[in-house]
């Protein structure tokens, strides 16, 4: 198995030659969904686990469902993602304007989640969600390895950053070296006009 180690700075290969069976998990969105093949048949083996409830040290007190307010970013076809370069809540309102014109969703780097500007369910990356939309806008995001881990499989990546050496440009299909506060309003207006035609 291959998994990130040391904060995602290297990929570790884990070998387990001794014990069987083995189990590993993958995060949602890491691989494209396979088309179901209904001709395949699996063998169903009924299994009755023997639990002794008196030995449980953990008790389920209550189940509270998280309130779903918007589309899961992992399902979005277009993501307008902002980083520290966006800076504040008002900056993300501007990104929401672009996302609304395109029928997309707003997501974020961890920097803005840690700053309390965006909720964790909008975070893309190693400790957030893995996404692969048709279009991923990376606005004011430097492109740290932990962020790239969650979005580099996107079909088309469009990056706006005022630093031409930002690592995000190494994975971008289209890069604009500019202040996002100039680019995003112009892009939003232009797309509004084009899509209204
Ligand atoms: C164990 C671990 C797990 C992590 N998991 C994640 C994760 O899941 N997701 C994640 O995102 N990060 C994660 N990180 C954090 C990651 O290392 C980076 O710190 C983070 O991604 C940086 O966010 P950022 O790109 O928004 O900010 P910065 O790295 O600060 O980049 C901001 C960028 O904005 C540009 N900029 C500034 N102003 C403007 C402007 N006006 N116009 C255009 N560009 C501008 C700057 O040039 C800069 O490139 C993790 C770190 C660790 C150690």
How much helix is in the residues? 10-25%
* Shape type: elongated
Q: What is the mean predicted local confidence, pLDDT?
A: 92
Residues in β-strands, percent: 15-25%
Q: Based on the structure, what is the oligomeric state of the protein chains?
A: single chain
Uncertain residue ranges: none
> Considering the protein shown, what is the CATH homologous superfamily of the domain at 73-196?
TPP-binding domain
| Helix count from the secondary structure assignment | 4
DSSP E strands, number: 7
Q: Identify the CATH architecture of the domain at 73-196.
A: 3-Layer(aba) Sandwich
CATH class of the domain at 73-196: Alpha Beta
Q: H/E element string?
A: EEEHEHEHEEH
Distinct small molecules: flavin-adenine dinucleotide
Q: How do the strands line up in the largest sheet?
A: 4-3-5-6-7
Could you tell me the radius of gyration in angstroms? 21 Å
What does this protein look like?
The protein has 197 residues and is α/β, with parallel strands linked by helices. The chain has a domain at 73-196: Rossmann fold (3-Layer(aba) Sandwich). It is built from 4 helices and 7 strands, in the order βββαβαβαββα. The chain has helices at 89-102, 110-114, 145-151, 180-196, and strands at residues 2-5, 10-13, 78-82, 105-108, 135-139, 156-161, 174-177. The strands form 2 sheets. A 5-stranded parallel β-sheet has the order 4-3-5-6-7. α1 packs parallel to α4 (180-196). The protein is elongated, with a radius of gyration of 21 Å. The model has no long low-confidence stretch (mean pLDDT 92). Flavin-adenine dinucleotide is lined by residues 7-8, 83-85, 109-111, 123-128, 140-142, 144, 146-147, 150, 160-163, 166, 179-181.
């Amino acid at each position: 198995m291959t998994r990130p180690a040391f904060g995602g700075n290297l990929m570790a290969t884990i070998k387990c030659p001794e014990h069987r069976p083995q189990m590993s998990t993958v995060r949602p969105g890491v691989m494209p969904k396979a088309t179901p093949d209904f001709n395949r048949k699996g063998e169903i083996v009924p299994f009755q686990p023997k639990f002794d409830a008196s030995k449980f040290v953990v008790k389920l007190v209550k189940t509270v469902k998280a309130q779903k307010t918007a589309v899961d970013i992992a399902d979005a076809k277009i993501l307008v993602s902002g980083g520290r370069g966006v800076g504040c809540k008002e900056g993300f309102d501007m990104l929401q304007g672009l996302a609304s014109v395109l029928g997309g969703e707003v997501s974020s780097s961890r920097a803005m989640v840690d700053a309390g500007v965006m909720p964790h369910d909008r975070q893309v990356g190693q400790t957030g969600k893995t996404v692969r939309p048709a279009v991923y806008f990376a606005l004011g995001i430097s492109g740290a390895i932990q962020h790239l881990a969650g979005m580099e499989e996107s079909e088309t990546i469009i990056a706006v950053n005022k630093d031409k050496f930002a690592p995000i440009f190494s994975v971008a299909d289209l890069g604009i070296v500019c202040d996002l506060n100039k680019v995003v309003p112009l892009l939003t207006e232009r797309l509004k006009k084009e899509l209204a035609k």
